[in-house]
Specification:
Helices cover about 40% and strands about 15% of the residues. With about 300 residues, the protein is of the alpha/beta class. The strands form three sheets. Strands 3-4-5-8-9-10-11 form a seven-stranded parallel β-sheet. A two-stranded antiparallel ribbon has the order 1-2. A two-stranded antiparallel sheet has the order 6-7. About 45% of the residues are buried. NADP nicotinamide-adenine-dinucleotide phosphate binds next to helix 9.
Length: about 300
């Protein structure tokens, strides 16, 4: 990416994506900067641009988006707010999902070669980059092409310089390993948080493979156990003079050295709190007690 905006040197709390990209341990998920139900434009365009610039100026080096957020408007917004990009900013985007309209249930997956090829080329065009640093297959769900063929398409796009690194989103461990037999996989992402460990097996597989793992909805606490989890984490938060959300984020960083949570927010204040979570030192006992609040998937 072109280097124009300079920033202060980053803290050493970083990890590597493959061997050539370095990112800080807390990223930013941009999905909320869309309309209701992740459809259309975010209503406050100036506010969204100011927030994205605040995120970049604060030193975040990983922003997560997807062509289906909007669709397209989220990538275009990131471009309009931040292009030309800081040289150390990794923008991860995804292809393979489509929306049939405002109704979220129209979300569907497509994986055939021409579709994925067009998607990657158009994401690069919307983001204004020659090469997309990290490109995820958005799911392992598409059935219009064999999964292995979808991975082969991404490998071809990588060989052609359209994408630099390949990531996998919402895939099974079997799919993750099948993909790794075809091409290097640099990252994986799945839902994983205090109350939902759906992504646990994928986290373990990513860790074993040395791939970055981006837990999404990283600080969400939902479901039947929410009240119990909040009650258990509250005293830890109080001890660290932090919020429960911050402890949830700090837990990810302690849980795995390959984890880079990508919390989403529309608020600069919340963003600052989320970034500050990287400085919280939890004890081994605290980490273990939070991990054991519910069973891993
Ligand atoms: N791969 C996939 O299939 C997939 C699926 C879903 C999401 N994702 C990615 O993961 C990212 C995160 O998910 P998400 O956007 O749904 O966000 P999220 O991290 O699950 O949380 C968003 C919610 O948390 C609130 N929040 C954020 N920081 C807070 C804080 N410090 N204190 C209190 N509340 C706070 C936000 O409200 P405010 O706006 O008021 O702060 C918002 O209501 C997405 O942006 C997207 O990039 C990927």
């Amino acid at each position: 990416m072109s280097t124009v905006r300079n920033r202060e040197p980053r803290s050493d709390n970083t990890i590597k994506i493959a061997d050539d990209l370095v990112v800080g341990r807390v990223g930013y998920g941009a999905m909320q900067l869309t309309g209701p139900q992740v459809w259309g434009e975010y209503p406050d365009r100036d506010g969204a641009i100011a927030l994205l610039r605040h995120v970049a100026d604060a030193g975040v080096t990983l922003i997560d988006t997807a062509d289906v957020y909007g669709p397209h408007s989220n990538e275009l917004l990131i471009h309009d707010a931040l292009h030309p990009y800081p040289n150390d900013l990794v923008i991860a985007t995804k292809g393979g999902f489509v929306r049939g309209g405002f109704d979220y249930s129209t979300l569907d997956a497509i994986g055939n070669r021409n579709y994925l090829r067009q998607s990657a080329h158009m994401s690069a065009r919307r983001l204004g980059v020659e090469t997309i640093d990290l490109y995820y297959l958005h799911s392992g769900r598409a059935i219009d092409a064999p999964f292995e063929d979808q991975i082969a398409t991404l490998a071809e796009l990588r060989d052609q310089g359209v994408i630099r690194h390949i990531g996998l989103s919402n895939v099974s461990v079997e799919q993750f390993e099948a993909a790794r037999a075809i091409v290097d996989i640099a990252a994986a992402t799945a839902q994983y948080n205090l109350s939902s460990r759906l992504g646990g097996p994928l986290l373990a597989a990513a860790e074993a493979a040395g791939a970055m793992f981006c837990p999404y909805h990283p600080a969400a606490i939902d479901g039947d156990n929410a009240a119990v989890i909040r009650a258990a984490v509250a005293p830890i938060a109080e001890l660290h003079q932090a919020t429960i959300q911050q402890i949830a984020l700090a837990w990810h960083l302690h849980r795995s050295s390959v984890s880079v949570p990508i919390p989403g927010t529309t608020s600069a204040g919340h963003f600052d709190e989320n970034l500050a979570a990287a400085r919280i030192d939890l004890s081994l006992e605290e980490v273990q007690s939070i991990t054991e609040l519910i069973a891993e998937a």
